[in-house]
Task: structure prediction
Amino acid sequence: MLCRTASNLFWMGRHLERAETAARLLDVGQRITLLPNTEAGYQNEWNSLLQASGTSALFADKYGEITQEKIEEFIFFDRDNPSSVVSCIEKAREAGRIVRTALTSQVWDALNVSYQELRKIEKTPRSRIDTANLTDFTTGHTSTVRGAINATQLRNDGWHFMNLGYGLERADATARLLDVKYFVLLPRIEFVGSGLDTYQWQVILRALSAHRAYHWAYGGDITAGRVADFLILNGESPRSLITSLYEGVWHLEGLAKRYGDKAPTTARDKSREVLEALQARDIDAIFDEGLHEFLSWFIAEIGVISMRVHEDYLLGGS
Amino acid sequence: MTYYNEMYEGKRVRDPYARLSDWVDTMPDDFRQMKQAEAEALFRRIGITFAVYGEGGDPDRLIPFDMMPRVFEQNEWRKLERGIKQRARALNAFLRDVYGRGEIIRAGRIPAKLVYQNDAYEKAVVGVIPPRGVYSHIIGIDLVRTAKDEFFVLEDNCRTPSGVSYMLENREIMMRMFPQLFRGNRIEPVDQYPDLLRRTLESVAPQKCEGRPTCVILTPGHFNSAYYEHSFLANLMGVELVEGADLFVDGEFVYARTTQGPKRIDVIYRRIDDPFLDPLCFRPDSLLGVPGLMDVYRSGGVSICSAPGAGVADDKAIYTFVPEMVRFYLGEEPILNNVQTWTLWKDDDYRYVMENLPDLVVKEVHGSGGYGMLVGPKSTSDEIEAFRAKIAADPSNYIAQPTLSLSTCPTFVEEGIAPRHVDLRPYCLCGDRIELVPGGLTRVALREGSLVVNSSQGGGVKDTWVLSE
Result:
């Protein structure tokens, strides 16, 4: 497979996952503004969510004060925001167009239809769109693409690269979101039992589409330790750090097996090492170590793995 | 002026269109509109779009597709086929000759200046004979019809003719939307084209190639207006679509950068122009090509299709000599005629053309895509005078032809169905054999009365049928 093809498939996966993350942030932010007791605080909530996608400075420069309309414009439509839904779907579709020959017609069709529909939404007057439509639109279409990939793509190296992109992006997104809100998960005496802390944790779960799954997995009350455990170490949770990383490792193993000694395996080796380090911890150890320190470590390691993927496979052996 | 109508002779429907006539007559308006919308949705969905250079606007513009097919009878097609193959042979013989001993020039049949001082003549490949002596592997020959048995060649495209994806997709979409039409008519298939193209490319693998040749399509990239076609063909042929940066030269071969290290490439079907192929040999500022590619080519390590330098055969100035090439190299009389052409660097021709501008079509020698031309009868006197000044400034840059009465084919338009002018581009493949699929791309000028069929100038496309016996 051409390096350029592999690279585009990898980034196609990453951008599709990123589009979904953006849509989920929008949904959560919207929900916060609908609750009582947040009239003064919701701007802070929005701000922390923008920080999770690394775009709060960009927002402040371009739009200034936070309002619902501006946020919607920024997170969904704005092409100047590299993490907006429109930017990500456009980039994913562009990557797909470049490597059309590596995609089945169903995958291309799903991807192209998402983009064409997106352009229709862009032309619709904003007053006639509500936020729920935008998130449903995004998750609906990204799921269709995902489904087409699973149902129709050959299980070859291209498939591994796409899914590697998805996995690493998801690990990164979950870790960032947790990092922005890490202080909420730390037990603080003045909040215990006030209802505010539980509510904040729910927001995090919801941002990861995990609030119902959490109840299935743990039952009972929402506590900081369990929320963190669910999102970091629970192998059943689809967006947890461990699940996302595990999928990444699995696809890197697949590539290593397929290519034998024709390509280096430094990315695979590194990802194995990080996974083992993660498996060796429990949630108490993570809290002892410091949640923020732990997450910083993890985000940096994901960065190293991505870089090694580029070095091993995407630069070409000239 | 009366035009040959492909479907009707007076009120009578010509034989090949007999079944289509019922289909058109019984089609309700709302059904037609529904199907037209369906066709457009299909094109957009598949991603068949065409960006027009320098127009800005929608990058995902569609070429309008007309559902009314254009039909040839078997015997009409046989004659065209013979004529096209003959022309393709002559053009390749010419290229072999002018990069070799130049017999046709020594014999005084073609002026040396027109060949050797032509911009498309590549001095870098003089004396290099590509595998099987084939320079142009895909030749698109643009034809127009003026009467039942009168076809004229408007121009030859020996470099990298585009549009073949439309020939294939138009057929796919017609078969999907109107299967009953295909059951009732025996229409020769065209979908073997990608296989034939791959076989053609493999048949011209370089001598140093071992085992089954590895072919690739070299594209300028996804911003190119024909990118869809490049990826479409790569997909159907089962070969990689590469950009210049995916390839590199090491020693005497060209390699692709792959996830498993370098992979040797034997045949490159390039869709980029000569000047961009190799910055070390041609334009040093080109980022589209592969540094060192021409050295590998010259030493027989890789085949390039079409071969660098092939463009000298399809130049509008050389065009006038193609019938002469047929006689000179093949010893045959041309089956397909040229359109009468005045070359403005000759004094007599210049005088005649300047006196008759309102009746003529004038083209730039190196222009393409319907740009830089004057259609006399369709122009205002201001436009004609402006063009006259351009010609006077540089006469050798222009040729002129009579305004042809291009045939018309019924076409779906706003008001229903009406005749519109059409041309035809079949794609001839040259390798160890010369092949032509029964069909081609019919382009139609959608504006009433317009004679310009180029998609960049408001032209559309039709499915082209050849009926079997």
Observations:
- Residues 2 and 277 of chain A are 33 Å apart (CA to CA).
- Chain A has a mean pLDDT of 87.
- Residues 1-153 of chain A form one domain.
- The longest helix of chain A spans residues 3-33.
